Amino acid sequence: MVRVRSVHTAHRRKKRVLKKAKGQFGHRSKRYRQAKRSVTRGMVYAYRDRKVRKREFRRLWIIRINAACQEAGVTYSRFMNGLRRAKIDIDRKMLSELAISSPAAFKKLVKLSKEGAEANPEKKAKTETKVDAKAQE
pTM here? Predict the structure, then answer.
């Protein structure tokens, strides 16, 4: 019976790891063991930071929208609430791009947001109505 050798598989695996380690400094790109550690750690950071990047971009967009809202004389929360009530569905990324590239269009959105908030007042919560009833007694 012919003996099974895993030379080709092992060589391919090492080659793949060393290819991913290209650009690393010193032995990390040349020696398999160090390269494997470095690549594994790099992949862990990459996985984690893909999640972090989403959070950080959302924070950045909110900061930009907030700054544009302050210039327009409205708070971020009232602006977003007004957009929701006016049934305008634009995500934060697009709002921040509008605020930077086209301030006039953003000002129109602020105006629509204010109109939407006034036209569609939200119903009072049940707890507030109970408090109001007690205050009237």
Answer: 0.73
